[in-house]
Each structure stands twice: as C-alpha cells, then as structure tokens.
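Hi again,

Forgot to attach this to my earlier email, sorry! This is the prediction with zinc ion bound. I've pasted everything inline since the attachment limit keeps bouncing my files.
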Amino acid sequence: MSHGCKYLILHCMDYRLQSVIEEWKKTKGVSGDIDVMSIAGSCKDLANYAIGTCESNFVMAMITLAYEKHGVRNIILTQHEDCGAYGGKTAFAGDEAEKAKVVGDMIKAKKALLDKFPDLRVEMFRIKLAGEGWEFEAVND
Ligand SMILES: [Zn+2]
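Structure tokens for the complex follow:
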C-alpha cells in the first residue's frame, strides 16, 4: 500500500441515507480518506457475531483488512432508525425499544472490535428521523 487511510465507516445500505451520510462525512472532515462499508443493518451482523448468534464474520474480516492493509485506526459505527434489516419501525413496541436495540447492537459491535484491536478509536452515531430528513446523534457507551 502506498498510503493508508485513517477512517472506516460502517453504515446501512439504505438508499435514503446515502446523500445524508456523504454530507455528514464532509462536515466531519473524513470524506474521501475513508474506507466505506455499506451493508444492510450496519452493525447488526457484527453484534450478532459477537454474541454467537451469527456465524458470519465478514464484517470483522473486512475491518481486519482495513486495519492491517490500510492502517485504519478510527472506526465510525452508525445505526439508523426504521432499518429494514430490523424489520423497520413497526418491528418495535415503540421508539425507545427501537433505540435500545440498535444502540445495544452498536455497543456490542464496538466491544467486539476493541476486544480484537484495543488500539482502535471507535465512535458511534445513531441516525435519527428528523422531519423529512435525518440527523446524526453521538452515542456513548
Ligand atoms: Zn438500514
């Protein structure tokens, strides 16, 4: 590799989010210099892998590649509301139940990453519905 990058972002494949995420990356100053993983449910599979209910570790495999080959040390995890991979909003009893589930999955994913790579810096953001659009909310564990 001639040069690496500092960041990796994991976000959902959902078409509704892509332009919002692109703009947010520019605001954060990470646009371009970033590995991008765009998969259904974002952290869902990694969280399930961490607790042993999903055999696939392809997310971890790709992040390992980014860590080893690109020198990535900053991971941005995101989860959004009304995610089809979770069955959408109607799969939950209410907004708080939905928030608890997706934030919980992000935290499990973060822990799995830090267990493997303790020198990673992992930030978490929930992408909330806001009127006709979306907004990013930082999440702390
Ligand atoms: Zn989604």
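The chain has four helices and five strands. The domain at 7-139 is CATH 3.40.1050.10 (Beta-carbonic Anhydrase; Chain A).

That should be everything now.

G.
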